[in-house]
From TrEMBL:
Name of the protein: UDP-N-acetylmuramoylalanine--D-glutamate ligase
Gene Ontology CC entries for this record: cytoplasm
Keyword Ligase attributed: yes
Task of the protein: Cell wall formation. Catalyzes the addition of glutamate to the nucleotide precursor UDP-N-acetylmuramoyl-L-alanine (UMA).
PANTHER family (alphabetical): UDP-N-ACETYLMURAMOYLALANINE--D-GLUTAMATE LIGASE
This protein's pathway: Cell wall biogenesis; peptidoglycan biosynthesis
Length: 459
């Protein structure tokens, strides 16, 4: 960890707790700052706040009082999920107080190399693949995952040495708050329209994503999907060396697929069919990871070993189990149409699809072609149940069932399936109408499967 003096004896406000806020507060306290933590949850129901108070950190809970800004804060470190329209955040910006996120703070103390991964879909899988590939090297330090993947970057940055690499998943929410974050390698997996309720427009969302490369130099690398004219044009904005990847073989300057075979420049890597995790979208994720691995000196044998054995990330087209000929998959992380479409296109077998969730005002007609090609039975739930069902009708699906939630959907899916079918939760929606997050939704789905198969009774 770098020795950083800029926060010593300075007042810093940490806005919002959860993992990132807890770790930011502790790190700033360690760096000698006078830390104030503000969280909207009441103190009596806030074990994180209670813990920080016991550590000697000032805590204000139960709301976000504007009077906080009367104090002379040097910087505000906000939870990524708190929007910039929040009165405290807007007030800090008006007073020219820098507003950053925990990952920016982590980058300031990191001794080792930083690799940043963003994009609408595929961030977590690509981040995990890159980390696994880098750890195939024998003559280098350790690679750690961090960031939006669920591991606070500030915790990783404190333990990483100068020889280590922090592979950091960066959401658009995190990227809005960066000032100096400088990845040696920045990756954009793809960009589709999502989180428009937070960013206000697709243009603002794209600008947030492109902040990943804004502090790079010609000595750095910008790795981007080349399968869209829009994404190719975005690459021109980067000051770094652009190294593309393409599943459609639109370029051979980086990693690409031709006739089911993966290459890096002129070097054959492996057959796409031998990637353990299914789906064309995972071929894209693999190509992005191959570029980074090659730039970092990973041998081809190490890359192939990872891609042949990596079984996926929890809640992301995660294989759960096979029971009486039916394969169960958990894709709870699919919170938008594109994610669900990609998941469906990864299977040749008939799919019993469980979908629905928070209504963000989206329509689902664009999902109809994938539903038509892959789904035999559609089971819908949540606020968007009727909208998803309407897309199913448009796709010509005869068997559409309504149910309460993803848990009650499991026995219903079983009744409507037969050996050889895929049963998959891939909601195409956020979870917040019924569950705290997509992880809880996926875990409840898995528990319902265990109950169906009898495993829950054994545990």
């Amino acid at each position: 960890m770098k020795s950083v003096e800029q926060y010593r004896n300075q007042k810093v406000l940490v806005l919002g707790l959860a993992k990132s806020g807890m770790n930011a507060a502790r790190l700033l306290h360690k760096l000698g700052a006078f830390v104030t933590v503000n969280d909207k949850k009441d103190f009596d129901e806030n074990p994180d706040a209670q813990e920080l108070l016991n550590d000697g950190i000032k805590v204000i809970t139960g709301g976000h009082p504007l009077s906080l800004l009367d104090e002379d804060f040097k910087v505000v470190v906000k939870n990524p999920g708190i929007p910039y329209t929040n009165p405290i955040v807007a007030g800090a910006i008006e007073k020219n107080i820098p507003v950053i996120t925990e990952v920016e703070l982590a980058s300031q103390i990191l001794e080792g190399e930083l690799i940043g991964v963003t994009g609408t879909n595929g961030k977590t899988t690509t981040t995990t693949l890159i980390t696994a590939m880098l750890n195939q090297r024998t003559a280098a330090g350790k690679a750690y995952v961090a960031g939006n993947i669920g591991v606070p970057a500030s915790a990783v940055a404190q333990k990483a040495t100068a020889d280590d690499t922090m592979v950091t998943e960066l959401s658009s929410f995190m990227l809005c708050g960066i000032k100096t974050l400088h990845p040696h390698i920045a990756v954009i997996t793809n960009i589709y329209s999502t989180h428009l309720d937070y960013h206000g427009s697709r243009e603002n969302y794209i600008k947030a994503k492109m902040r990943i490369t804004m502090n790079q130099t010609p000595d750095d690398y910008f790795v981007i999907n080349w399968d869209s004219d829009e994404w190719q044009n975005l690459a021109k904005q980067s000051p770094a060396q652009v190294v593309p990847f393409s599943r459609q073989a639109k370029t051979k300057a980086g990693a690409y697929e031709v006739d089911g075979k993966l290459y890096f420049q002129d070097e054959y890597i492996m057959a796409a069919k031998n990637i353990k995790i299914p789906g064309d979208h995972n071929v894209e994720n693999a190509l992005a990871a191959i570029v980074v691995a090659k730039l970092q000196g990973v041998a081809t044998a190490g890359i192939v070993q990872v891609l042949k054995t990596f079984s996926g990330v929890r809640h992301r087209t995660q294989y759960v189990e096979t029971y009486e000929g039916r394969q169960f998959y958990n894709d709870s992380k699919a919170t938008n149409l594109v994610s669900t479409e990609m998941a469906l296109r990864g299977f040749d077998q008939p799919v019993v699809l469980l979908a629905g969730g928070l209504d963000r005002g989206n329509t689902f007609e664009k999902l109809a072609p994938a539903l038509k090609d892959h789904v035999k039975t559609l089971i819908v739930f949540g606020e968007t149940a009727q909208k998803v069902a309407d897309a199913g009708k448009l796709a010509g699906i005869d068997d559409i069932e309504f149910t309460e939630n993803c848990e009650t959907a499991v026995p219903l899916a079983w009744q409507q399936s037969q050996p050889g079918d895929i049963i998959m939760l891939s909601p195409a929606c956020a979870s917040w109408d019924q569950y705290p997050n997509f992880e809880v939704r996926g875990d409840r789905y898995i528990k319902a499967i265990e109950k169906l198969t009898g495993k829950a009774e054994e545990n």
